[in-house]
Specification:
Layout: E1 7-9, E2 12-14, H1 19-48, H2 50-61, E3 65-69, E4 77-80, E5 85-89, H3 94-109, H4 120-145, H5 150-174, H6 177-188, H7 192-206, H8 222-228, H9 234-238, E6 244-246, H10 247-258, E7 281-283, E8 289-290, H11 293-307
Parallel strand pairs: 3-5, 6-7
Antiparallel strand pairs: 1-2, 4-5, 7-8
The chain binds zinc ion.
């Protein structure tokens, strides 16, 4: 319905409000403005970075849709695998969104370890790598974009200067984009507070699997991660840098895995339930990093066996 008859209430003439028609008009205008903004984004990114162009085109070739959304809170953008759509927060500035588009399109090209089948350690390791990979590709694009889109580069430097510097220094040294991406990937893990936010959301997700019998069984090995992110040396996925969590995250993983339904009847032997966080290094509140409990246990057993 687009129009209605005039309404007269208590002698006051109220003109017909053509809400539907206005909404449709406003929506059309908004969609047109969004389309134009997106077209200009693509043009600017394509003209300033061959790496970005390749990522965005590969994403579009997979049928991924790109759209704007006004309801993303403080988030710059996201990729929804279920809807196969990259969404950009239309309230944010161009310089923030240009490289976000590359970051989210890179997510659309990844093959994540889905679901609650993963152990806490496996899931966290996998999510960290996906994020570091998207960020490393964003750095690679921004490095090329800095001449034509200096504001996008400077904006990223403000929030993720350490990662961008790692990329820049390595590229300057080797002129090898893959080595520079690996440097940025590793640098992603250096900001402990930032990484912990991701770990925390992983725990919140895993918590929902307590009643699901298949949950928390599958580990994600360093071999598998090295296979997926082939520009990163496998040793990194085994390193202390890649495998350190906060005390709080270790506690959260332990309580989630111990509360799983398959341990429901095991009330008398709960301290012996194996938890995947015992394979993580743990950073205490003073910032000191302690080796994985399982590594300490194995070393003790080895010493015992040798002293026999
Ligand atoms: Zn991301």
């Amino acid at each position: 319905m687009s129009s209605s008859a005039p309404i007269i209430l208590g002698g006051v003439f109220i003109p017909p409000v053509q809400t539907n028609q206005m909404d449709a008009e406003a929506k059309k205008k908004r969609d047109e403005a969004r389309k134009q903004r997106l077209d200009s984004f693509k043009k600017r990114v394509f003209e300033s970075s061959s790496i970005a162009k390749e990522i965005i085109e590969a994403s579009m070739a997979k049928g991924v849709g790109i759209c704007f959304d006004s309801d993303l809170g403080g988030c710059l953008g996201c990729f929804s695998p279920s809807m196969n759509v990259v969404c950009l927060n239309e309230k944010m500035k161009d310089e923030q969104l240009l490289s976000t588009l590359v970051h989210e399109c890179q997510h659309s090209l990844q093959t994540p370890e889905q679901g609650m089948e993963n152990t806490g350690k496996g899931y966290i390791s996998s999510v960290r790598a996906l994020e570091a990979d998207a960020m490393a590709h964003q750095c690679a694009a921004l490095y090329q974009m800095q001449k034509k889109e200096p504001e996008a580069f400077n904006d990223f430097m403000k929030s993720h200067g350490g990662i961008m510097m790692a990329y820049t220094q390595e590229f300057y040294k080797t002129k090898d984009a893959n080595k520079a991406k690996a440097a940025a990937f590793k640098a992603w893990y250096a900001d402990a507070k930032y990484v912990e936010k991701y770990d925390h959301s992983c725990c919140e997700f895993l918590e929902q699997g307590m009643m699901y019998s298949g949950a928390y069984k599958k580990d994600v090995s360093s071999e598998k991660l090295a296979e997926k992110f082939s520009y990163v040396p496998e040793e990194f996925f085994k390193s202390k840098e890649a495998n350190t969590v906060s005390e709080q995250t270790a506690k959260d993983i332990a309580s989630i895995e111990k509360a799983h339904i398959r341990h429901a009847l095991n009330w008398f032997n709960r301290s012996n339930i194996k938890v995947s966080c015992d394979d993580f290094y743990v950073r205490d509140q003073k910032g000191e990093v302690h080796p994985p409990k399982n590594q300490v246990k194995a070393a003790l057993l080895k010493n015992k066996a040798m002293s026999r």
